[in-house]
Amino acid sequence: MANRLKTATSPYLLQHADNPVDWWPWCSEAFDEARRRNVPVMLSVGYAACHWCHVMAHESFEDPATAAVVNENVVAIKVDREERPDIDAVYMTATQAMNNGQGGWPMTVFMTAEGDPFHCGTYYPRPQFTALLEAVGRTWTSDRDRVVEQSGQISAALAENATAVAGLRAPSGDEPWKQLTAAAVTALEDSFDSSAGGFGGAPKFPPSMVLEFLLREGSPEAVAMVETTGEAMARGGMYDQAGGGFARYSVDGTWTIPHFEKMLYDNALLARAYLHWWRVSRSPLARRVAEETCEFMLRELRTDQGGFAASLDADSDGHTDITGGEGAYYVWTPSGLREVLGDADGAWAADVFGVTQAGTFSRGSSVLQRRADPADTERLDRIRAALLAARDGRPRPGRDDKVVAAWNGMAIAALAEAGLLLDRPDFTEAAESAAALLASLHAADGRLLRTSRDGAAGESAGLLEDYACVASGLLVLAGVTGEARWFSVAGNLLETVLTEFGDGSGGLYDTPADGERLIYRPADPADNASPSGAFAAADALLSYAALAGSSRHRDAAVTALKALPRIGSRAPRAAGTGLSVAEALASGPAEVAIVGPPDDPRTRDLLRTALHAASPGAVFALGSGSDPEIPLLEGRGLVQGAPAAYVCRGFTCQAPVTESAALRDTLLT
Questions:
Q1: pTM, whole model, 2 decimals?
Q2: Which of 579, 559, 439 is nearest to 506 (CA)?
Q3: 224: which residues sit within 8 A by CB, 6+ positions away?
Q4: What is the pLDDT of residues 91-134, one digit of tens each?
Q5: Which of the four, 301, 302, 346, 643, has the lowest number of CB atoms within 10 Å?
């Protein structure tokens, strides 16, 4: 049996390379093989940090008897959803359509050799999975024509539904953005959990993009929801109280028990959200969590090449039993604390972190929480360091060390801003290293590859979210460092967005025009766990327009929001990114040109003040003002030899200021 996954760049595929299942990667040859054998295709989609993917692999894909049933009845294809989110999106839509809106990973799809799905599900225990495979084989043999006909009808219906977004009316340039965003705040209040924070019930995912929007909207009602949610998440078990960083979601409604996998995109988005919360509130908690989350990304996710790895697993040391492997790296018992810290400190830590004899997780273990801050901060810092060191001696969760372009773009934006605002040059340096990796390995001639691993580029073409999030991150980095080359790279990427991703009506597809053809071309306008490609593109296009004075890019940003009025009014939790862009449109956005040597403390002080005080969506350009590559800097100069700040809207600027207090007054009026 050929081992077709052994050369994959995806750690998830490599986890399955030695299975007795005769796996194929997603390729035309796999579908040709299904035609040759006259059998269906089974598509299995997951990702390296997925706990239940590991469970199904251990139960079924590693079992020779079950694998024999797979190999007899289907051609099996394995896909990493993080490497090919376009494939995942298409077939997750089918899965949800066939299962009353329910879906998840691992995703298990049976389809024809033309890619038309006829049965979809998620995790199956081994007995049910074996029975399903045998039933699929019998039905295919006895009633293939009907299966083929119905699967074709399913694909046609999915394609028809996917075109509905293209028919939406594009917003006009004078759309009442503030009316839309105010209505969204009211709608969010209806689902807000006023006691535990967040929106809706369990499970609770961190509402990163919604928090960002609420901070930009800025009303007392909006900021109150941020404060309640931000504090509850940071004090519960979903936040790693020993090492920093957030788990993917909370299985309960109080942020107590996490699903322990840690994703780069969550932590990049949340680091920036907490940073922006601190910017407007000066909350010590917000600052601490923003800084610790950035430190977590550098400590746990940074790769040897300077990028950031995709995720940390929920399981440790290959264990898949829910009471033995998942979360084992993170949980504690009272006796475990005493063993590491001694009796006095162990008892004190158990009280601070809510570690009880009964436990909050499994087998009497507890996830660390920090519902209040103790007075003795030095003792707390010493104990946290000791727990982190002791934990490092445990079997570590696996790391998916592929570099995903979009997620690294989010990390670049967060780290660049945090480096300046928190006076942490190591954060900015890390952002620059990640940007250099993307520019050298992922990007060429305005085109972008989605992933790399160990310095080798993957084969998957970049999607809309990759172009948008990388461009946004580079624009932030250019504004913080004064390195105009990042502005140029971002402009090239956005030119590709405009020329290769358009849907013919001003909207945007998730895949490029020359990308692989699936049963339909996906164009999902709604945020999910990370920003939608369309909304992220609107954000990047608007920022670039403000820096470049380009009406073309501004018009494209507005048109990319064409689904926002519908989604923002009906489901604002899925429109946080778009609503944030709407707030930026409503406020200008402000354009701030800082002219002076980037390493001059006076220049840095002006830039830091601008980042603190500017209105939502403001853009920043930093440079000398002579022969600028960024148009916003053109014609701007020093004032009597001192660094100066120019606050503009639509390239019409107020008088320059040289003092931080004057700049703050200018921005706040």
A1: 0.95
A2: 559
A3: none
A4: 999 999 999 899 999 999 999 999 999 999 999 999 999 999 99
A5: 302
